[in-house]
Design a protein that fits this description.
CATH superfamily of the largest domain: FAD/NAD(P)-binding domain
Distance between the termini: 37 Å
Shape: globular
Bound molecules: flavin-adenine dinucleotide
Number of domains: 3
Protein name: FAD-dependent oxidoreductase
CATH topology of the largest domain: FAD/NAD(P)-binding domain
Organism: Actinomarinicola tropica
CATH class of the largest domain: Alpha Beta
InterPro entries: FAD/NAD-bd_sf (IPR036188)
Number of strands: 21
Length: about 475
């Protein structure tokens, strides 16, 4: 069986190792960070340092599509997460009815360190996987060229070269692969990158009685020029994120605890989520890029024996919570490509990996980029006080569905299936009678007054600290991380 080295033990690297080991491959995972996860995943938030993952203590949730895929393909992952995380049935959360037929729509929430520790513990006990922490990869080792391009035969570590039939780059958004490729004389995979334009201001809380606030709507809600993410988590903790445009100078004050709290309290549907003991200050994340790499321009490999997965191949603005679901999808696609093509012809494998990535993953990437541009357009319009108008029919249909979903459980279910990556928009909208239902609901839909006006939002952000209700303790200081790109 081939020997595979995975660079990076983030969620993408760990899921890749699990997918490949399931097919009998021997997988060595090399992780730069030295700290091992605590034996008890629930202790990870307090006791696990992960400098290599900038978003380690940011808001986190796993879409229904993740759970569905994991249940089908890697059930041990589902079991590991079920032991530590919360499961939500979003239809029941929104309608208040617990008997909804939504078995395939389950969102999993827990703080990221807990999730990563649970999956790390699983990889540590899975036969065929060796994880080495404190083992940075310094570069690539190459042998004789194949198809006229460098062929990677392993990785260079502080202890010498580790040989591999395939090196998988799972080093995340800040993947050093371009430098590694240049150093061995290969042309780096061409990249397209743009700032998605969003800023995250998030905080975590703990409830005094160990309970999490009631969900009275979807996890992600839009309030004009600002979106809010409310995520119940394990152990009576939860996270709240306020997401704005990086061009919105008037809401920059949200990095301050007083401004953040005043604004969150004014958003009636989520105001009760601020009533807890803060366990963080406001963690700010900016410069979140939408970036992807083309592996074989013109279907010609630039390198063989080396394949990126997950964020190393493409990373997107995380508002929609898709990253880890797409990482799992990509990991399973890698397993299936090796099954179908093998690794004995590295050039054929490189082209196949390019083709599968473009066919199965690229549409997801494009969908997030499109959604980002529309959401930024909506925010700009809300700031200017004008309606957002765009000719993109698919986008208009999706927003109409979002606006009317509360009027019809079938629409709600369709919306959650699309947002949860359980089905594509095309699949849901082409179901018999679905469009008619949306149109019927749209006729009944009346535009409610906004929860908060732009003027009030700006006033609150600026006057907080002088007249806003104080938070229950300010929690630790604000942390800013703008080094993701
Ligand atoms: C702010 C934010 C919030 C997010 N929220 C969500 C969410 O709610 N839900 C969701 O599904 N996704 C979310 N994501 C996306 C998600 O984090 C990733 O898509 C997913 O975890 C896959 O990441 P990865 O494993 O590819 O990379 P990473 O998690 O970044 O892991 C890369 C690993 O490689 C290691 N490494 C780097 N260089 C080397 C080297 N030279 N040698 C060895 N190891 C190295 C790093 O130390 C790190 O451990 C979010 C992302 C961000 C930025």
């Amino acid at each position: 069986m081939p020997e595979i080295v995975v660079a990076g033990a983030g969620l993408g690297g760990l899921l890749t190792a699990l997918a490949l080991a399931g097919d009998g491959h021997h997988v060595t995972v090399l992780e730069r960070d030295a700290g091992a996860p605590p034996g008890e995943p629930l202790a990870a938030w307090d006791h696990w340092q992960r400098r290599g993952v900038a978003q380690f203590r940011q808001l986190f949730y796993l879409l229904p599509g993740f759970r569905q895929l994991a249940e089908r393909e890697l059930p041990a992952v589902t079991d590991a997460l079920d032991a530590v995380a919360l499961r939500h049935h979003p239809l029941a959360d929104v309608t208040g009815e617990s008997s909804q037929p939504d078995g395939d729509i389950v969102t999993v929430t827990a703080r990221r360190p807990t999730v990563e520790a649970a999956i790390a513990r699983l990889t540590d006990t899975t036969p065929g996987i060796d994880v080495h922490r404190g083992a940075p990869i310094r570069g690539l080792a190459t042998g004789d060229p194949i198809a006229g391009v460098p062929h990677v035969t392993g990785v260079v570590t502080d202890h010498g070269v580790r040989r591999a039939d395939l090196v998988v780059d799972a080093t995340g958004r800040r993947s050093p692969a371009s430098d590694w490729l240049t150093a061995v004389g290969a042309r780096p995979w061409p990249e397209v990158a743009e700032d998605s334009g969003f800023v995250y201001h998030s905080r975590h809380f703990r409830g005094p009685d160990g309970r999490v606030p009631a969900l009275r709507g979807p996890l992600l809600q839009h309030f004009g020029s600002l979106s809010a993410l409310t995520l119940p988590a394990e152990g009576g903790t939860w996270g709240v994120g306020l997401i704005t445009s990086s061009r919105d100078d008037q809401l920059r004050a949200l990095h301050r605890v007083d401004a953040w709290t005043a604004v969150a309290r004014a958003l009636t549907p989520i105001a009760h989520w601020v009533d807890g003991d803060p366990i963080t200050g406001v963690d700010v994340m900016t410069r979140l890029e939408d970036r992807h790499r083309t592996l074989c321009p013109d279907r010609r490999p630039l390198v063989t024996g080396f394949a990126p997965v997950a964020d190393s191949w493409a990373s997107t603005n995380p508002t929609l919570g898709r990253g880890t679901t797409l990482a799992l999808l990509h990991a399973l696609a890698l397993r299936d490509t090796i099954r179908a093509v093998g690794l004995h012809d590295p050039a054929a494998f490189a082209v196949a990996w390019h083709d599968i990535t473009e066919r199965d993953m690229r549409p997801h990437y494009d969908a997030v980029v499109t959604a980002d541009r529309h959401r930024i357009g909506e925010i700009d319009a809300a700031i200017d006080g004008r309606p957002y108008d765009d000719a993109d029919v698919a986008w208009r249909a999706y927003r109409m569905l979002e606006d009317t979903a509360h009027l019809d459980p079938e629409l709600l279910r369709g919306w959650f299936r699309i947002a949860g990556l359980v089905a594509t928009g095309t699949e849901v909208f082409s179901e018999d009678g679905f469009l008619r239902r949306v149109a019927r609901a749209a006729r009944r839909h009346t535009h409610a007054a906004p929860v908060i006006t732009r003027d009030r939002l700006v006033t609150l952000a600026h006057t907080a600290g002088t007249n806003a209700a104080p938070a229950r303790g300010d929690g630790p200081a604000t942390r800013t991380n703008d080094r993701l790109s």
